[in-house]
Amino acid sequence: MRFFFITLSFLLFSNPLISSVYEPEVLWKKAAIKYCYVDKKKLIKKTSFKRKSYDYVLGKIPQDYRENLDQVVQDQFNPNDTIVHFIGGKDCSDDPSSDIYIIPVVPKSGKSKKKRIPYGKASVGYFGRVSFPNIYKKVFKSVPSSEKHYVLLNLKPVQYKHETNISYEDALPYIFLHELGHILSFRHEHGRDEMLEDPHCKGKQETMSTTAITSGDYDPFSIMNYCYLHGIIKKRIPQTAPELSERDREIFRELYHPLF
Ligand SMILES: [Zn+2]
User: Fold this and answer.
1) Between 168-183 and 63-76, two packed helices, what is the crossing angle to 10 degrees?
2) What is the pLDDT of residues 69-90, one digit of tens each?
3) Which range marks the domain in which residue 138 is found?
4) Distance in Å, CA 233 to ligand 1 centroid
């Protein structure tokens, strides 16, 4: 018993103070995470994406554009800078062993009672299927253990009609990096109370997950901060290159370095 207490307190007090909002249960146990692009509709079934909630068809990202997206991902997440990084980028039919399935979709036009597809969406198995796969399997028996995590990318969001917005092609790299941030355990930076004092954050407040860990200072420039991302997309904030903030990188190093 005594040993247990010593171990626990060591873990608690040796943890550095991390400025972030993240889910400790979904930290990956490997540094190189493989992703692929879903190229056949039937592959969507391998993920937990709620297919029937939305009206959409599977989209295809033009090849040159996909290369640009892959390049942004390689530049921003790399072994030296963030420790954790992404590999792959093939079609999922050619590389079914990928950890993350990227699902590009185009909403169907016309009236629908179904939900509107967001700009992007990410699923990592919120209840810890990454860190605690055995517990996950016991608790969620109906979900096959082979289920893939996914990132949904909406290739024709209706929200982009307004002419003051940047084009969706230009916005997609920011959205992709943001969703990959979720994949690596990050929650929204604008879930923190400090956002109330950020002039770019009006109307963006949201309820924070109760299992997330929040500490350190608020980062207005985090890739996980909608106030900053939407500001760029709506041209309220001057456009900079799609990239992680300095603090985002620092946190990935702090979170993932001790694991490898
Ligand atoms: Zn998000």
Assistant:
1) 40
2) 999 999 999 999 999 999 999 9
3) 18-259
4) 15
